[in-house]
Design brief:
By secondary structure, this protein is mainly alpha-helical. It has helices at about 5-25, 30-50, 55-70, 80-95. It is elongated and about 85 Å long.
Length: about 100
């Protein structure tokens, strides 16, 4: 286990314990257990996540930059080659 995976695992355990002590008096043990699993799983997954050589933090930052900070507006313009050839033919036939 790498240091990064170990730190993320410790963070996940900390989140699970915190959620347990916070929610157990309110919801009961079974529901609290499921919420602890759901709350801790993203932190645990971050330690093992790799996508195109990027870690979870690098991927999240790249996603924020590409989708929120610097989004590209892609405009689709169809290209009708047949119509262009007809227009060129009409232009040349008039001369």
């Amino acid at each position: 286990m790498s240091l990064r995976q170990f730190v993320c695992s410790l963070l996940a355990v900390g989140v699970a314990v915190g959620l347990f002590f916070w929610l157990n008096p309110l919801l009961g043990t079974e529901t609290t257990g499921w919420l602890c699993i759901l709350g801790a799983s993203p932190f645990a997954a971050c330690g093992f996540f790799h996508y195109h050589g990027m870690t979870a933090e690098q991927f999240a930052w790249a996603w924020v930059k590409s989708e929120i900070l610097f989004p590209k507006r892609l405009v689709f313009r169809s290209e009708n080659l047949y119509l262009e050839l007809l227009r060129e033919e009409c232009l040349y036939s008039k001369h």
